[in-house]
């Protein structure tokens, strides 16, 4: 089904309205009713979207799968969830923040305004006045590189087209967190275990070994997703670590209880994230408002991973959307 979609306009497919009229869960109930199939597909979907299958549109999900490739290779669900040869294969030594740090160094820190979240974008004659709480800049072009729900928190003057505003009202973020348990050593490697878990119970149901290659200390990372993340968002961190410790002991044995330090990251509670990893579309959104994801409004351009043709939801997609917007602006200069 995903192979039949135009990644730039999935809403143009002859069955788009039908596919956008149901959730992934309703499709699973009809096409894959066996409990084993439901378990595997649900776990895979949760790991990609941090949502429950009942929440998202079938069309949106198919379009997302189709986008997990490039102009010559159509995406597959396996590519999204696989480690070897898939989207989960690589990590950046030193952390992904190094991307932002290195880019900032190239741009020059003096050219970046920090601690100034944009509150208002106002078109004044032929330029835009972009304002934070205590300062403003004037620009000919403006790029809003944010998820749709966060972009909607900016005040635009004049108002954005109704379709764009309706889109941002209807695309929520997934619910996601990560738990990092630090150990003296990656003890699971001694037993020949790779640290990867897929479970149908627990607060943490998917884990990865995030230890350094030299094994100088151990880091077990676990995803907290969808309904489980929403449940844990209501709890203090102490109770969360107690639950996750029980999960890790169940997976890796009693030595997993000897956690030296915890890092619990809840993106749902972050002011400039409010969830993750991507804004998703419930039924009825793409066919009604999908064209507004990428369409500029005057010299106001929209980027971000949701506005990419390929690798939506990934840093790759965010970069691609930036390249697209840069081309739009260059053509107008």
From TrEMBL:
Residues binding substrate, per UniProt: 223
Entry keywords, A to Z: FAD, Flavoprotein, Oxidoreductase
Enzyme nomenclature, EC number: 1.4.3.-
Residue intervals of the Amine oxidase domain: 45-330
Catalytic EC class: oxidoreductase
Alphabetical list of InterPro entries matching this protein: Amino_oxidase, FAD/NAD-bd_sf, Flavin_amine_oxidase, Flavin_MAO
Catalytic activities: a secondary aliphatic amine + O2 + H2O = a primary amine + an aldehyde + H2O2
A Pfam match: Amino_oxidase
Signal peptide stretch: none
Cofactor(s) this protein requires: FAD
Molecular function terms from GO: monoamine oxidase activity
Chain positions recorded as FAD binding sites: 118, 306
TM regions (residue ranges): none
Similarity field: Belongs to the flavin monoamine oxidase family.
PANTHER family in UniProt: AMINE OXIDASE
Protein name per its UniProtKB record: Amine oxidase
Organism field: Aspergillus arachidicola
Species lineage: Eukaryota, Fungi, Dikarya, Ascomycota, Pezizomycotina
């Amino acid at each position: 089904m995903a192979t039949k979609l135009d990644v730039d306009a999935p809403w143009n497919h002859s069955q788009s309205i039908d596919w956008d009229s149901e959730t992934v869960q309703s499709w699973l109930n009809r096409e894959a009713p066996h409990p084993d199939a439901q378990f595997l597909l649900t776990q895979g979907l949760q790991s990609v979207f941090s949502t429950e299958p009942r929440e998202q549109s079938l069309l949106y999900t198919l379009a997302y799968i189709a986008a997990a490739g490039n102009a010559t290779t159509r995406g597959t669900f396996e590519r999204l969830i696989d480690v070897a040869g898939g989207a989960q294969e690589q990590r950046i030594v030193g952390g992904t923040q190094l991307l932002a740090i290195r880019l900032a160094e190239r741009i020059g820190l003096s050219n970046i305004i920090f601690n100034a979240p944009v509150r208002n974008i106002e078109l004044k004659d032929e330029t835009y006045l972009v304002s934070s709480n205590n300062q403003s800049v004037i620009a000919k072009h403006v790029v809003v590189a944010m998820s749709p729900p966060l972009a909607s928190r900016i005040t635009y003057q004049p108002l954005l087209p109704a379709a764009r505003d309706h889109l941002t009202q209807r695309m929520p973020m997934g619910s996601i967190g990560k738990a990092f348990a630090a150990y003296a050593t990656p003890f699971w490697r001694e037993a020949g275990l790779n640290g990867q878990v897929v479970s149908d119970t627990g607060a943490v149901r998917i884990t990865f070994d995030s230890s350094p290659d030299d094994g100088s200390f151990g880091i077990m990372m676990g995803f907290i997703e969808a309904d489980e993340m929403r449940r844990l968002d209501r709890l203090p961190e102490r109770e969360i670590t107690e639950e996750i410790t029980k999960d890790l002991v169940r997976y890796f044995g009693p030595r997993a209880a000897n956690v030296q330090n915890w890092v619990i990251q809840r993106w749902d509670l972050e002011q400039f994230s409010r969830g993750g990893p991507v804004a998703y579309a419930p039924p009825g959104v793409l066919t009604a408002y999908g064209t507004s994801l990428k369409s500029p409004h005057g010299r106001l351009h929209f980027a971000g991973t949701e506005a990419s043709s390929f690798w939506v939801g990934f840093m790759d997609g965010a970069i691609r959307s930036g390249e697209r917007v840069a081309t739009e602006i260059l053509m107008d200069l």
